[in-house]
């Protein structure tokens, strides 16, 4: 006890399941002799403490399992610095919670408790400044994450490993020991005589232990006998060939030389996939850039509705990776279903302020090797995927739907536009092309098809031209202002080879 008090430690053990069990003189003796201690600074990140009676059935000590959810502290991003910085072993996946196995009633109970304890619901969202809005969004995100940590398991634990020498017979013996162990506990609680069961348990444990030792030793001997002079490296080479390069290459070829370290490489990747805007070369370009801050002379669009928000959240795929806030669409949907008014007020305050929250504009970049390019050290061997927060994507969807509506109302959409157009699809595009070809043949004329592919079209979208197009279609002024702010100060964030780099985008 002196050790615990003097070092400000806390006991993590819960429940009364014994951690040690032994049979002496025909009696089952058990106690809780194994204690898990944690300091106050990490106590919040420890969850799901339990005694696992099945992990080590041949031992007198029962296994203790618990989750350390400390990765959350590293994954959440609120302030990003540039240029690239060391990140040690920072997790590179934004999937933090196993929401597919979530107990939603438990999540909502934790969520309601935290929302009640905070004063978020008492805040007048309609009077907030951009800074105040950012603070509220940040607090809501923290509350949801706290409820997730309390009610869900952390992702990335991986599947349970089984050695290559594991057999069905071993699995059956292990299960027999576990079942006998359970039966012993059941009889003990019912005050049923245990003599026969204890003998059976000891016999099964001995049989399981001997078989375990035999199979592992046998497999190791076979492995050693295979390592001759000719094939001593065969296993290593086979593993390397099968698994490929697991760690990202620290240096990459830039065309005129290689980067010198991981920091240079991370910065080079961002500059390659998210280049800076180029100086104007045409008078038209200069004219459009001068109009960048010019608002259209149109009316405001009506506020967003809660029904719109819930509909778009429902349509999202919860298996898609979330942004830096770690909140998948199913988690966001559960929050929105109970706090629809709060979320609607936040989105409508964004609309009235014509302000897109900064934390929803941070894209977490994953660099994926192209097929057949694993292990290559060329920048062209990779492609980027930007992961955005779900709530930010909902707000994007809201204003995209409004823009598409106004473009249709004002007849500003070309009738030959088949992509990203409601009630049109690729089948109609093919039929239209076939119709044109058929007409050309009937008139004994040549039909010419031009296929144009613009490399990195979305990554090079020019914002002044985009805003001019919005003025042309008569975009409502509040939607226009929201999009104008949306494209400003967008940020990309990359964790690569142990370092972190970020960049403010000027196009795309």
UniProtKB/TrEMBL annotation:
Residues 368-487 form the Reverse transcriptase domain. One of its GO terms (biological process) is DNA biosynthetic process. Gene3D superfamilies: Endonuclease/exonuclease/phosphatase. InterPro entries: DNA/RNA_pol_sf, Endo/exonu/phosph_ase_sf, RT_dom. This is Reverse transcriptase domain-containing protein. It holds the Pfam family RVT_1.
